[in-house]
Structure formats: C-alpha cells, structure tokens
Amino acid sequence: MLKHADTPLPFPRNTGNRAFSGTGSPPPRSSSRDSSRDRKIEHRVVFSDRASSGESRGTASGCETASFGSGSVGPEVSHLGWGRWYTLRELEAATNGLCEENVIGEGGYGIVYRGVLGDGTKVAVKNLLNNRGQAEKEFKVEVEVIGRVRHKNLVRLLGYCVEGAYRMLVYEYVDNGNLDQWLHGDVGEVSPLTWDIRMNIILGTAKGLAYLHEGLEPKVVHRDVKSSNILLDRQWNAKVSDFGLAKLICSERSYVTTRVMGTFGYVAPEYACTGMLNEKSDVYSFGILIMELISGRSPVDYSRAQGEVNLVDWLKAMVGNRKSEEVVDPKLPEMPASKALKRVLLVALRCVDPDATKRPKMGHVIHMLEADDLLFSDERRIGRESSHSHRCEQENHAVAKLGDKRLG
C-alpha cells in the first residue's frame, strides 16, 4: 500500500518542504506562501508489513539498556573505527531533550533535530520511526558499513545510537537547506539556482551516487534519491543525504529482494512492481532528479493540467515534439545554450529508460555530463558559429528520436 508521510511543517522547520531532508536549515524565504503547494503530502512507497526473502525481519533485543527517560545510566560510549556510538543521554542533551523547537524536518521515516554536542559540534540527529523488526545487530552492521563512507558529495554519518527501541543516526550539519526548497520554495520570480549551479548540483550528486555504487564493497544502493535528500552548502555543492538505511549488495549478487521503500514519483517501475533492487533503481531516480532540476517541476503535481501531472510523461512528450526549450524552468535567470540543454535531457532520458538494463551506470553518467560541460565551455568561448549549426541540428534530431522511442 502507499503510505503518506506526515503533513509538511511550516517552511521554517521543514527542510524538505514535502518531507524531511536529513540535515540542514532552511534557506531564507522572501514571503510566506498561501498556495496549496505548501500543503502537499508526500507519497512514500513503503510495503512495511510484508516480509521478503532478501531482508531480515528480526526482533529487537530485550537485553539492551534502559530506554530514554528512565533515568538509568546509558551504555559506555564506544568509539568506532569511523565515528562514535552515542548514548541517548548525550543526544538528549545535544537536542535539549529532543524538543519541538529543534525539529528541522520530519516525514515517514523519522524526525530530524538540530543539535549541538558537548564539544560545540553542530549535528543533525535523526530519530528513526517505523523501524520495527530491525534487530540491533542488523542495524549496526548496515550503519557501520555506511559510516565508513567518505566523499565530498555525501553527507557524513558521524555515529549512531541504539538503546531500547530507539534507533538514531547522527549526521554532520549542512546549513544551506536542500534542493527541494530552492526549486519549489518561495524564492521569488528569479531563482538563485543558475544553469551552471544546477549542472554542478547534478554532477556532484552523480559523483556521490557513483561512489556508493562503484567505489565500495559491498555496494550501497540509496533507495530514496530525491530533491529533498540533496543538501546544499554555501557554495551550492551537493551532498547526498539520508542513505543511512540504504541496502548493501555484495559483488556476487546482481540484486536483492526487499521491501519497496522510496518516494512516489521517484521509484523505478521494476522495483515498485517486484521489489528487486539494484543500483539501476537509483539511476532511475537520478534521471527524475535531473528532469526536476531542468524544469523546476515536481515529479508528480496534481495541480497541473491533464498530460502534465507526471513529469516524466510530460517531458518525454515535449522532447518528442521537438519542444525541448519549453521544458526549462521559467525562473532560470537565463536560458542555457541549446546544445547544453539537449545533452542533459539526453542523459535524463537514458536514466529513466523503462528497461533497467539499458540505463547507464553512474560512472558513465558522470562521463557524459563532464564531456558535455567541456563542450558547453568551448561553445561559449567560440560563440555560435555557423560551422556548428549542422551538428546542433543532428543533436536535436537525436534527442527528439530518443523521446519518440521512450514514448513508444
């Protein structure tokens, strides 16, 4: 069944606008919004009551230390190879007792609090919800593997807490909000996200995902790539967040069968239908993210006219009808070069191919994006010379042909 995430909080508290982002405080708002868009409910896909062959369904240990608020002394602090095992008492002190005023986001998976540790370090503390059935051992194994991940485009997991029924994750604090806010929040008539910034965000996100997929053993599949899980620093660099409960896939296995978890509009069709998960599921979600960045539209928006509700279907139709320029976010300060737009659309369409085997790996996506960036720079330097017109015409035909193919 489809579960609805909690109704979004007012913008000053909700880092995801439609769901929590993991970390990060919101960007400034020019004015309060009075539209129905602020009250959208995110559709999370969670088949939480169905056991599967690929995911452990153990029960929590009964021999853990006393739970929060009992007054009992917590477990001794454990320093891991990559971070720390925090006590619940420490995190209570850091977040002022998990108080309402420190909530910076919430959704179907948990509540995120802003906190300050005893040494002055700012952190984001995620108190996981709906974690029934995940035993302490399973939780620790997965989190300790992911905790060793170090990449500039991934939010760093600093440690965790397991006490009683509590499962909490401690992340670095990223203070410029998330992509969902900057795309869909009230940022005025002109977005601060220029074309170059958007391309940098796409490339940074791709590099973070490629590291999870291709730079680790076992590989890590995120399972919930979306705009509210892309945090931004003050230089607009992307940091992928909320992969603390991603699935691990060993090299000898091509996929795992697991509960379907994700966000409506981003979930790959084969994963939603069968529960069979591999890295190509993330590639599909990344393709949706590219489309969202280019168009400024949400993956699913019921307030739009018929035929425009689903972003993928609408964009494919526009590209197939050779109207690529009309899909660009009207809030962009300036239109991108035609060649740059078509190349990125081509990457997006390949990522959302209905046939998962035809989707590129993230490493190949990076190659295509970086090659496009070089060509784009060259084109800007030498100008729009007539010698390029024939090549651009061929490229336009190729993109339109791909759009026609995807529609068929």
TrEMBL record:
GO terms for molecular function: ATP binding; protein serine/threonine kinase activity. It comes from the Eukaryota. The keyword Phosphoprotein applies. Its EC number is 2.7.11.1. Residues 1-72, 385-408 are annotated as: Disordered. It is a single-pass membrane protein. Residues 31-47 have a biased composition (Basic and acidic residues). Transmembrane segments: none annotated. It is an enzyme of class 2 (transferase). Pfam families: PK_Tyr_Ser-Thr. The keyword Membrane applies. InterPro entries: Kinase-like_dom_sf, Prot_kinase_dom, Protein_kinase_ATP_BS, RLK_Ser/Thr-Kinase, Ser-Thr/Tyr_kinase_cat_dom, Ser/Thr_kinase_AS. Residues 14-24, 50-70 have a biased composition (Polar residues). CDD domains: STKc_IRAK. Residues 98-375 form the Protein kinase domain. It catalyses: L-threonyl-[protein] + ATP = O-phospho-L-threonyl-[protein] + ADP + H(+); L-seryl-[protein] + ATP = O-phospho-L-seryl-[protein] + ADP + H(+). ATP binds at residue 126. GO terms for cellular component: membrane. Belongs to the protein kinase superfamily. This is non-specific serine/threonine protein kinase.
